[in-house]
């Protein structure tokens, strides 16, 4: 096989079907529909100008033999706007593994971007660290929010996918909540006795292995973990009729003010770039667009 037969290029929308087929072969247990739905969502979402929409592929005769999905997003706080990229779903056919470094090299070429890996397999941790990545989340905290007290005067409401305005929230918050509701997440607003409106996004998750396997939701977004602690009782009581008893948080240890269990056996997350990601923000990542 000559080197000229292989090239690394951006994935185009016309490649969706063949890329989905390759990923289905590469990830046992994930259906073709799983990959197709996620790729269609990537095709429809907003992407920061000048960055790839889907990621990169190794092209051999017009067909993908390797793929690395990239999910770029813009995040804005009160100080600055930053670009993040979720590195996701790397797979190369065995016969072409010698060309795999082409994917990882081109995928991390932007110095201004903060790259994150939120689902690394345990055996890849040392490899990721040698590539210059640092851990920003060491594990998961399995909270039992219904065991927390409901603060006096607190109320909670579910946000529908077609909501156009939410009292007390900026338009950007409303768009974030409704967009994730359309992805199948549970978007909520807790209102305190003092009149604050606190946004939350949660997602049902599958616990496929291990001894901790509660009916659970993953905390995808809140402004600050302290706000989740404040609203945990109300959230827990809303989730019980839905058959969920636990909310999983990215954490670096036990979370004061919550009842639950911390584990370092799963949930480690890495970053590389100018900005350390904060906990409790998994918006627009593979976990949301593709599902747990």
Automatic annotation (TrEMBL):
Protein name per Swiss-Prot or TrEMBL: Acyl-CoA acyltransferase
Organism annotation: Bradyrhizobium canariense
InterPro entries tied to this protein: Acyl_CoA_acyltransferase
SUPFAM superfamilies, alphabetized: Acyl-CoA N-acyltransferases (Nat)
Domain of life: Bacteria
């Amino acid at each position: 096989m000559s080197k000229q037969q292989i090239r690394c290029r951006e994935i185009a929308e016309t490649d969706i079907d063949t890329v989905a087929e390759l990923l289905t072969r590469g990830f046992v247990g994930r259906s073709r529909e799983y990959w197709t739905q996620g790729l269609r969502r990537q095709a429809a979402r907003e992407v920061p100008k000048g960055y790839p929409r889907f990621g990169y592929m190794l092209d051999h005769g017009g067909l993908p033999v390797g793929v690395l999905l990239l999910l770029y997003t813009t995040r804005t706080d009160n100080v600055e706007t930053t670009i993040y990229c979720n590195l996701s779903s790397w797979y190369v056919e065995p016969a072409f593994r010698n060309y795999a470094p082409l994917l990882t090299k081109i995928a991390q070429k932007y110095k201004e971007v903060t790259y994150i890996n939120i689902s690394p397999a345990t055996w890849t941790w040392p490899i990721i660290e040698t590539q210059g990545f640092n851990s920003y989340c060491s594990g998961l905290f399995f909270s039992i929010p219904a065991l927390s007290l409901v603060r006096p005067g607190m109320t909670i409401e579910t946000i529908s996918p077609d909501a156009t305005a939410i009292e007390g929230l900026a338009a950007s918050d409303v768009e974030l909540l409704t967009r994730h509701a359309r992805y199948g997440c549970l978007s909520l607003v807790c209102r305190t006795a003092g009149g604050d409106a606190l946004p939350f996004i949660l997602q049902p998750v599958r616990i496929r292995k291990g001894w901790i396997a509660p009916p659970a939701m993953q905390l995808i977004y809140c402004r600050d973990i302290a706000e989740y602690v404040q609203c945990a009782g109300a959230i827990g009581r809303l989730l019980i009729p839905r058959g969920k008893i636990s909310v999983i948080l990215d954490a670096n240890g036990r979370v004061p003010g919550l009842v639950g269990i911390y584990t370092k056996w799963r949930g480690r997350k890495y970053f590389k770039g100018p900005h350390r990601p904060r906990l409790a923000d998994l918006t627009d990542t593979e976990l949301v667009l593709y599902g747990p």
